[in-house]
Amino acid sequence: MPKQIWQAKDGELFNSEEECLLHERASLFLADMDQEEFERNEKRWGMQKGFSRQFLKGFQKKDDFWKYADSFRTLADILDGQRLDLPRNNPPN
Fold first, then answer.
1. Which domain holds residue 71?
2. What are 33-79's pLDDT values in tens digits?
3. What are phi and psi of 50, to 5 degrees?
4. Would you say residue 74 lies in a domain?
């Protein structure tokens, strides 16, 4: 009996729909963080202001990890599939 395979929008293959959906959400998050609309996308994903710029250029000081601890927790929840409320379509102002 053939095994069902799930294919993400980027062509990546997965053994389950859940793994595929988690990959697609993570890919969407990474694409959004790499856009010029930093503040809008931070609100859309529930991240602290300034997180995406630090995320892209690399965290230079260990204090930055503590400063953005809430955003790291949110990111971990997104990657684990625990924040199905994100991304928000219409982020708050």
1. 6-79
2. 888 889 999 999 999 999 999 988 888 888 888 999 999 999 999 98
3. 95, -10
4. yes
